[in-house]
Amino acid sequence: MKTEITKLLGIEYPIIQGGMAWVAEYHLAAAVSEAGGLGLIGAASALPEWVREQIREVKKLTDKPFGVNIMLMSPNADEVAKIIVEEGVPVVTTGAGNPEKYMQIWKSAGVKVIPVVASVAMAKRMERCGADAIVAEGTEAGGHIGENTTMVLVPQIVDAVSIPVIAAGGIADGRGIAAAFLLGARAVQMGTHFVVTKESQVHENYKKCILKAKDIDSRVTGRTTGHPVRALRNQMTKEYLRLEKEGASFEELELLTLGGLRKAVVEGDVVHGSVMAGQIAGMVKEEMTCKELIEKLVRETDSLMKGTGFYE
């Protein structure tokens, strides 16, 4: 499964684990990288020293490439951007903002920069400012989302840029990976399926919610505020959608979800917390190790792509 992305990042398989806040910590990132994919630490709004510690812990567990996902609207983004250089992180993915101001220091240090985008316009802009690749994330993904589906977004971004494109959102198995490849992507990024792996440190209640989920169980909150988020339905999403319908203020809605992801991931409160997951949650039926999951994905994809001439 050699593609431009495996060559660019020095990884065995074109499978990247999403940089999910509170979920993507060093145990998971190291396990994915060790299994031949690219593991990511989700920096989110974490304190810079926590990010530094996570990077060092990954290095103790694997000598393979890994990355950090930086949320650019975080108040700590400037410091985390420097830590990525200081600690010799090989790959950075970015979300919730524009990474242009960090491009020079990252590129000078040899860091591969891969922004996550939800539109063609942003993909073109990222290519112009020096991105090495693009993650095109469809609305099927968990957490913060755009409007276009993966099926329509990926080919349009592939046609618009000359750098490699990574497909994200709605991918759970080899069929999804093969479909992404045929749409023009050169790798995939997956989040929800990795949440349920044995190395993932999330609360068992969170894992059980995903394993029990059906196809109709995800909800999108925050459309009225311009910050849509996909999570599994529970008391919190029900209350949020009711308040949205009644025209509640942004402040009132924010108060309802404040610390919601931590509540679900760390404390296991899957009733009032935010159980972020993609629409593929209904396809995730068992907990396995990262190695077992990646081997299964590769086996399924290979059997479908055989004879297509896709692999170089």
Automatic annotation (TrEMBL):
UniProt protein name: Probable nitronate monooxygenase
Flavoprotein among keywords: yes
InterPro entries registered for this protein in UniProt: Aldolase_TIM, Enoyl_ACP_red-II_put, NMO
UniProt cross-references to NCBIfam families, sorted A to Z: enACPred_II
Highest taxon in the source lineage: Bacteria
Keywords tagged on the record: Flavoprotein, FMN, Monooxygenase, Oxidoreductase
Function comment: Nitronate monooxygenase that uses molecular oxygen to catalyze the oxidative denitrification of alkyl nitronates. Acts on propionate 3-nitronate (P3N), the presumed physiological substrate. Probably functions in the detoxification of P3N, a metabolic poison produced by plants and fungi as a defense mechanism.
Native source organism of the sequence: [Clostridium] nexile
GO MF annotation terms: nitronate monooxygenase activity
